[in-house]
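Researcher: Go.
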Amino acid sequence: MVIGVNLVESIFPNQATIVGTQVDLAGRPFEIIGVLEKRKNTFFGENEEDNSIFIPFETGRKLSPRSEEMMLHIKAKSGMLAQGLDQVEEILRRQRGLKYTEPNNFDLSTADKIIEQFDGITMYVGLFAIAISAVGLLVGGIGVMNIMLVSVTERTREIGIRKAIGARKSDIVRQFLFEAMTLTFLGGVLGVIVAIIISYIMMYFIPELPASIPIWAIISGLTVSTSVGLVFGVWPAKKAANLDPIECLRYE
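Model: Structure:
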């Protein structure tokens, strides 16, 4: 048999020579003829081959005659993946006695198909995250708008004084828009800092998980957060610009 490195560490922790050692599996003696090299960890953790035992196929059938599921790992020649899949399908259909009108009762997967399935899953996760983020931005924008409306009410007299000394409507609009955009921009900066800290924490505990934040994501996040302030600050800014300066000066 051939075993993975994790089994070597657990069964033979202090033994230097492993090849040639006799072990028992399901009551039958086996000789270890090789040890697999340490495989690179996958996205979900350790590679399964590090914990695997490989024995001859017919021997495995004798040890577990009731096993119904079987997984075959087949390697195609370079540039002949499509032909290899067709040949494997033809052989399996013939071995299973399937007629040409009957569908396959087995599944064939390649690395490309697995990657496509994973990309599909991540796409749906990304769409769900975008939907949640959109709701969060909407709620945050409404909060910023309410804050700015309260600010307009509390600074009514200030607005009246500015208009009395010559401030135009456009000046008042720009003032409150800049304040709203500054507020949301600072919120975006805080969010980026928190995201960077979380990414470093994730990479510290899970080194296999890529958690770096690209520059374009930071720029996009700050742009979106600033745009939220611009969009939701329009109404408070217009409300402040349309106030009557005489009424503002009388406001207590």
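Model: The mean pLDDT is 82.
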